[in-house]
User: Fold this.
Amino acid sequence: MTSSDDESTFGDPGDALRLIEREQVNTIKHVTPDPRLMYWPWGLTWLISFGLSFLRYGPGGETLVDMPEWIPMTALTGLLIAAGVFTGIVGARASRHIEGRSSRQGLMYGISWSVGFTAMAITFGQVSDGLSDGALSLLWGGGTVALVGVLYLAGAAIWDERDMFVLGAWISAINIVGVLCGPGWHALVVALAGGGGLLVAGLIGWWQRR
Assistant:
């Protein structure tokens, strides 16, 4: 064995360290979904559906844009399903090479979203009779946003993600403000601050990945 065989191919140990760090970053990027693909579908869902709700059930029960009553709720339901399916596919594709504890955590977290929304829909469906249009809109809108905020906070605790915790806290805070402001205003607050916040979160996450 020659002396050159014993020598590292790196002229400087720092080169090896930098290579390891680059490979770690590349691995994280490979198994972590693009934040834009995870946050923007939900941001657009809230911006559109709650925007429609605000136009149909404005402050004080005023109808700002005359449209059938079923449009805001149908838009919210359809867009929530579409966003959930889309982000589920993106998350599954990103984590298909992950095994063990992280894979189980991701699977259970994804199931938690489905179980939570299903339980909420069944519960609200049983208590919605007799409520005014404004109260009904506030119940479903406030409940949906509250559940999303809590799930983001839970996800932050699972993966120790500070940015996700900040987002979950922001969503919870603006939801409380909107509920206290009352029907109509809640939809406007969630559409702009909630939907806009999700769009900004996706953009910030994408920039940090770069």
Confidence is low (pLDDT under 50) at residues 1-8. Residues 101-127 form the longest helix (27 residues). Residues 33-209 form one domain.
